[in-house]
Amino acid sequence: MASDHLSQLRKLGTRLGLDRDWSLIVLATLIGLIMGFAVVGFMWPINHSEQLLDQVTASDANWLIWLVLGLPIGGALFTGLLFWLLPIRLRGHGVSICMYSVSREQSRLPIRLGIRQWLGSTATIASGGSGGPEGPIVTIGATIGSAVGRLLRTDPQNTATLLGCGAAAGLASVFNAPMAGIFFVLEVILRDFSLRTFTPIVVAAVISAATTQMILGSDQPLFGVGPDILGPHNETFTVLQTPEFIVLGFVCGIVAVLFGLALRQFERFFQKLRAPKPLKPVMGASILVILGVGWYLIDPFARVPALDQALPNFYGNGYMLIKDLLKPEFYDITRNAPETVLPAVLLLMLFAMILLKILATTLTLGSGGAGGLFAPSLVVGAVTGSFMGVTLESMGLITDTNPAQFALVGMAAVVAATTHAPLTGIVLVYEVTRNYSLILPLMLTAVIATIVARILIRDSIYAADLKSMGVRIGRMSDLTLLRRMSVRDVPMMPPVIVRENESGQRLIELSERFSVKDFVVVDEEDGYLGLVTGSDLSQALVYREAIPLLQVGELERKDLPTVLQDDTLDVVLDKFSANDVQSLAVISSTRQVLGLITRTRLMREYQRELDKD
Questions:
Q1: Predicted pLDDT of residue 483
Q2: Which of 185, 314, 584, 588 has the fewest beta carbons under 10 Å from its own?
Q3: Fold of 21-216
Q4: CB atoms within 10 A of CB 398
Q5: How many C-beta atoms lie closer than 10 Å to residue 271's C-beta?
Q6: Contact at 8 Å (CB) between 385 and 252?
Q7: How many Å apart are CA 394 and CA 403, to the nearest integer?
Q8: 596 pairs with which residues across the strands?
Q9: Distance separating alpha carbons of residues 565 and 587, to the nearest angstrom
Q10: Which pLDDT belongs to residue 260?
Q11: May I ask the CATH class of domain 227-276+294-476?
């Protein structure tokens, strides 16, 4: 009887693919445990730096101006020197580097990337730089997952899955949001929802979040909100409220696009700036300091006591600002004390905060500082939602909704619009607030914001980074299959070898004998030199009497790319698209020719894989 049950379990495992990938489940569990402890160690100095700042300024207010002036510059200088001492070849921010690694580097990430992100983002965020801890911890987790894969010499597909396990585990623990971590990795980084990928990533995210909860002894949401956010007379979302959230979705989509454009412009500016690389983050921090000093010099803003913090609200990760904006009582300030705080002043402050948070983040990250985009996107979304809520309320256009609801929904909308990942935005905000009552407007607004953002700019804030590096993100299903397959999966054609000094007549003879169109040109040591393509030979045949007078070297094309056996098929397809040829040479690391890969055979194998799925 027991053997029968065991046999049934094995059959089930075979159907699920676990006979091949069971080891990934074990490794995912290990990665989840490691990341649960890593997140606690990573977040401890960031969280305690905020408490320390509050204590210092509470005991001596004279320290405040010096902290505003000195902290961001000190953190930026440390980060700049760290990145200079630990250089990496890959460009981009943390998440885009992970995406590039999956697309072009067979999911290989250097260990020093994780070290850079850990130390650099801690210094940047703890010192007031505008960035979030989520992007760095995703990168740190991805680096650990990649290292495990390389250590065990797993194939590129399984290494990518392990990279995703680390990334999902990191995001799940730092936000206490395992579902958001899972969806972010599947929707943005891997773009693969197959069961063989989904299963280990779920295991890693759950184990990591549970480990962090066990260490901290708490399961509280990051931005917990109570039932009072709905107000005394508004317990359900009705169709009559749809227009106001549609408007919010449009506005959040536009704000997200402006955020992405500003970030790219500042990145280009600092890349072109002729200055020592370690000093560029200091330059960005210096401008941030000027904004911080200006914040305290503008008198009307100081009249909003609920937003009174030791450092300016656009410094750091902005979590305290989000918590304030999600409290319905915060907006009672404008209702109960109009002589002290006019709604117009609050609106002006909120509008300024949107611009300042975007500017602070683009200065911090665009100049070379370390940090993630999740927290800034949540802050910008909360402030945008709050601004729209107060605006519509002051105009008498909403009665059953309060601005705190708009702030919560706006968080999901901006995250979804910046990443072009509505599932991630929806699930993330639900998990960090644990409030299901607003799930309907949250989903509606996030989807509309994403649509608006995609209409205005085709690429997400991460895909734009990849595009600048020559990597295009296609449709999810097609790209997943092409990334999963490599040149090894496509039967190669045997090469017909010629040398540069041979006659053109030789090409015609070989073409008739072997029925081939493309020829590989090699040197005396059989190293690859170029190709003579069928189209070039056909053009030469127009003057057939001149063929015996031509040499192979005169017909040879040296500008065509080559491919390696481990290249994924999306890379090969890009090369075919950029060059109007039917074949490309497959070479070894020593430039020895292994064969030819053709468009026809590539598409045939791709079609077979589609039929399997």
A1: 73
A2: 588
A3: Clc chloride channel (1.10.3080)
A4: 19
A5: 14
A6: yes
A7: 10
A8: 493, 585
A9: 7
A10: 92
A11: mainly alpha
